Amino acid sequence: MYFGVDYYPEHWPCERWPVDADMMKEAGFNTVRLAEFAWAKLEPDEGAYDFSWLDKAIQILTEKGLGIVLGTPTAAAPKWLMNKYPDMYPQNSCGRKLGFGLRRHYCFNNENYQEYTKKIVSEMARHYKSHNGIIAWQIDNEFGGRCYCSSCHKAFIRWLKGRYGNIENLNNAWGTVFWSQTYKDWNDVIIPLSYFGEESQLFHNPSLLLDYYRFSSESAVAYQKIQADIIRENSNLPITHNLMGHFSEIDYFNLGKGIDFVSWDNYPNTQWGKSSYKEVSMAHDLMRGVKNRNFWVMEQQSGPCGWLTMGDTPEPGQLRLWTYQSVSHGADGIVYFRWRPCVFGREQYWHGILDHDGIGRRRYDEIKKTGAELMSLKDLLFGAEVAADAAVIKSYDNVWSHHIFPNNKEFDYNKLLMSYYNSLLDNNINADVTCAEADFSKYKLVLMPAYGIMSEGLRVKCEKFVSNGGSLLITFRSGIRDLNNCMTTKTLPGEFRELAGVELYEFDSLNNGRKVNVNGYFWNGTSRMWCDVIVPYSAEVLAEYTGSFYAGKPAVTVNSYGLGKVYYVGCDLDENAMKSLIGFVAKEAGIKPVIEHKVEGVEVVKRIKNGKSYLMILNHNNMPIKMLIDWAYKEDVLKGEHIKGEINLDAYGVAILV
Fold first, then answer.
1. Among the options 36, 43, 142, 279, which is catalytic?
2. Fewest CB within a 10 Å sphere: which of 308, 390, 446, 628?
């Protein structure tokens, strides 16, 4: 089990470093991340590298038994470099060049930036390749941000040539005959700038937009590969990059292929918003699903944080709870951000484990206690798998396509995925969140909400899964588009039609507060956004509309296909209806809840190690709760107490039952 902290020795006098190292050791840490923003100090002038200060910091930390995750510092380029090549600054979709003063002030596709990236990464990799205190590498920091500069324009044209071969193929794929947008030459191809406000970008050809979003994502993947290749030439240590959960500008499934393990930055409560525990759980499961293996949290919130203002101060027990939540969903490494808040710069109020005065108080004590618990249970926790019989499928192509064509102002693809994931949690059913390339055969139920961009190959995969006994759930806005973001000419739901056993007669986007009631034989619900008018030809009806001009028409159906079943949900549903529907679908698929009893705000995760299962129970409520427990679980190993049919959990309490 990796347990550590993000540390910035360059922010503090070197005389303080031994004090910090002693306090880290006392807190039970065995890992420290360093240097991901230190380029200006590592290379203060071009070609003048200075690793002496970092060497000293690493020596002090490693002498205390702390392993180092070393970050490449390319997320924040020094001013001397930006002065020399001002064309490296990125340009936003409105055509405005960004400047110095924040971070990520560079373009992935700028060839000069790539060359200087190679230089600094090569120097670091060579300098530390034999250092036995380094345990892993982190590339850059939190990739993100689309650029629309001239470097990107040139790279985009090269990317299109590789994808389409010739300009005629591009014209045909994009349908450029519309609005007389036909291109005669590759150099005529534009990038989708916003001509009058950011929203106007979406007025461009939707195939152009989708390809540009794909290209931008693959630019980050290619830039990461530049660094990974250099590190691997010098080291066989594992490489990671810190992802950002639900952030969707980059296809994390593709990005994950180039690293050895996934890590991500988990902030449940900041100035920009407070996440529900279900949002955080889904983010954990998505990060696990990127490579379908356990992950790290490289930045775990450890105090109140924000830039201009702050989110809530974590209450007693919440830091421990968030840590166990991460572990329960597959985190084999927990690294807190950060050791001590900075006294200068933009993040003065992004608090850490210590306070500004360098003194450890309540947060330090809570994390120290948590670390001791984790280490005492590391044989049980480290490397354990989440027992998931269901999977929610996320597609970044569909994220981007639905952004380009939401069809209803209330529609959000990520929120729809979350509503289905939440309904599984509400039924005490664990799930993986992964991609369509994953192995479906290990699941009893696969959910593919609003899977709009569909291919023949994926249809064949779904047919095989269902024919062999799997259950598949799809929804409205599924099977509507081809890979070029053009409407299919097949009768909807397109590639899903035969599987689902239904056809769409028409559909209705609900606007201006309209609602349509839906009646199932075991539940009633309300749709507020979208209703497909379904004509079943082999499917059975599970629910009907009771309002609007399509009252009496099917809203939800199920179709037997081979040994399995396909559910088609033609509308959005309120929370209670969704919970009932997913509970029914899961039961029909042969999925049992990990525990029968449900308490609001309490999360239960079933994990398996060496063939033996155990439960992690997390109380996200700020009040104590009592919960009935199945007879199979005998002991809470955190308290060392035997269980007699029920457990009591404190506010933000945790139990591990074996």
1. 142
2. 308
